[in-house]
């Protein structure tokens, strides 16, 4: 197999508008190499130009034909193929992003110490673009002081080293060291590609994000719920973690993988969401209520399934109002200087425009920021994109044009950061 890097002079040329972003997918030798195929697919399907650079050990797990077929380019682990195009320098120089999936303890040790004995390590030395490592290894290897020191060195130099997930490892053991979910790696790497190496400006901060929609059970099979997908809340949690915050995500009925490096508490009902958010808020610098809590619950859930009646009459549901979590934590701040953010999904009506209604809600609930979505026509729900206006209790007003939920998440954290200590 040979490697034929794309022609092109340097990183600047690769970043020119109109050209496809150039991603180098480094693959080192771990059993999780097969999951890198999914990351590769996500990048190619979203229009990126991907060059796969596996190590020789990676090819023991997943062969070169697989990488070549999925990327549409030949691959090689060594520096001796196609030497006339100087691949050991050109691939790194031309990249907009290098992402290593999985990153073994060995590849991070080599990168930390500047070793260059194959194509991937040469690429890591010549790259001037952001570099993301997605580690996967046994817990003992991740916790070893040598690995910890290498990870610290890489992070100090500006590389992003994603926290490994916890869970089942190769064999029967479980613990920290599992490769983060491929979707998570793709989302985070995409953020880094768009924003550059993300500054750890939320380091030392603890933030709480709620996401999803609560469900209030009517009987063992039915519930009152809503259309919230949790995508925006998960994007907020991921963005905060990427910016160095310690993040607690309180997730209500979301079918997305847990974001890497985030503490996730799963809840079902508004009462459970309330308890989990209030508990986590006690130690939080910021709380963002992106969840859509059900406002009402049945006075009592039926023990048995509600049956149809012979005369066709429908049952009457007696409902009671749920607590307003946002108003509670805003009016009862757990810590001085805590920043509280709400979301308002509004449709304008005869009493006012979307922004009038949202401004009134901001004042009523007593939060610091309100992220306002116009949901006339069901826009937003389940979509990867969002468009919003961020209103501040201090009179601030920032329009965020249609873009990814991740981009909106970063704007929200920028606004929160600006209010810390004010
Ligand atoms: N919210 C909350 N607790 C509730 C309902 C809503 O914390 N019981 C939060 C949401 O997470 C969101 C904000 O309040 O951040 C606004 O949600 P929205 O549903 O627009 O507010 P409601 O108070 O339910 O207003 P409306 O009467 O317009 O439905």
Description:
- Keywords: Decarboxylase, Flavoprotein, FMN, Ligase, Lyase, Magnesium, Metal-binding, Multifunctional enzyme.
- Residues 1-206 are annotated as: Phosphopantothenoylcysteine decarboxylase.
- Its EC number is 4.1.1.36, 6.3.2.5.
- One of its GO terms (biological process) is coenzyme A biosynthetic process.
- Residues 202-417 form the DNA/pantothenate metabolism flavoprotein C-terminal domain.
- It is a single chain.
- By secondary structure, the protein is of the alpha/beta class.
- The chain folds into 2 domains: 22-195, Flavin prenyltransferase-like (Rossmann fold), CATH 3.40.50.1950; 206-304 and 313-419, Rossmann fold.
- Helix content is 34%, strand content 23%.
- The protein contains 15 helices and 19 strands.
- It has helices spanning 11-15, 33-45, 56-61, 64-71, 87-93, 105-113, 119-126, 139-143, 145-156, 182-195, 231-242, 270-281, 325-331, 354-365, 405-419, and strands spanning 22-27, 49-54, 97-103, 131-135, 160-161, 165-168, 174-178, 206-212, 216-217, 223-224, 246-252, 263-267, 286-289, 296-298, 319-321, 339-346, 369-374, 385-392, 397-404.
- It has an 8-stranded mixed β-sheet with strand order 12-11-8-13-16-17-18-19, with helices on both faces.
- A hairpin with a 5-residue loop joins β9 and β10 (223-224).
- α5 (87-93) crosses α7.
- The longest helix is centred in the C-terminal third of the chain and has 15 residues, at 405-419.
- It is elongated and about 80 Å long.
- The termini are far apart.
- The structure holds cytidine-5'-triphosphate.
């Amino acid at each position: 197999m040979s490697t034929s890097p794309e022609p092109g002079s340097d990183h600047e040329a690769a970043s020119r508008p109109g050209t496809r972003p150039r991603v180098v997918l480094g693959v080192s030798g771990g059993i999780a190499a097969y999951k890198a195929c999914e990351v590769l697919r996500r990048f190619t399907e979203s229009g990126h130009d991907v060059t796969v650079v596996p190590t020789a050990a990676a090819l023991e797990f997943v062969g070169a034909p697989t990488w070549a077929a999925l990327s549409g380019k030949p691959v090689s682990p060594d520096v001796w193929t196609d030497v006339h195009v100087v691949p050991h320098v050109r691939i790194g120089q031309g990249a907009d992003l290098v992402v290593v999936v999985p990153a073994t303890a060995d590849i991070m040790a080599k990168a930390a110490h500047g070793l260059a004995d194959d194509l991937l390590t040469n690429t890591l030395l010549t790259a001037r673009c952001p570099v993301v490592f997605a580690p996967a290894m046994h817990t003992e290897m991740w916790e070893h002081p040598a690995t910890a020191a290498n990870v610290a060195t890489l992070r100090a130099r500006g590389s992003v080293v994603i926290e490994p997930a916890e869970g089942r490892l190769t064999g029967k053991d479980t613990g920290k060291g599992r490769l983060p979910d491929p979707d998570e790696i793709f989302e985070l790497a995409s953020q880094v590609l768009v924003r550059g190496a993300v500054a750890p400006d939320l380091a030392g901060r603890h933030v709480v994000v709620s996401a999803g929609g609560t469900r209030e059970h009517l009987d063992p099979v039915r519930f009152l719920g809503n259309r919230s997908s949790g995508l925006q809340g998960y994007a907020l949690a991921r963005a905060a973690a990427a910016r160095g915050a310690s993040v607690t995500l309180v997730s209500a009925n979301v079918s997305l993988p847990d974001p890497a490096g985030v503490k996730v508490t799963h809840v079902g009902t508004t009462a459970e969401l309330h308890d989990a958010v209030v508990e986590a808020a006690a130690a939080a610098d910021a709380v963002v209520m992106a969840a859509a809590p059900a406002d009402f619950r049945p006075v009592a859930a039926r023990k048995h399934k509600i049956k149809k009646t012979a005369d066709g009459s429908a049952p009457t549901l007696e409902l009671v109002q749920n607590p307003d979590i946002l108003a509670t934590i805003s009016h009862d701040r757990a810590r001085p200087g805590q920043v509280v953010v709400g979301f308002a999904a509004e449709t304008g009506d005869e009493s006012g425009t979307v922004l009038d209604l949202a401004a009134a809600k901001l004042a009523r609930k007593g939060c610091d920021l309100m992220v306002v979505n116009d949901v006339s026509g069901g826009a937003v729900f389940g979509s990867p994109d969002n468009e919003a206006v961020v209103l501040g209790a201090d009179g601030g007003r920032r329009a965020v044009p249609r873009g990814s939920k991740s981009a909106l998440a970063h704007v929200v954290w920028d606004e929160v950061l600006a209010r810390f200590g004010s």
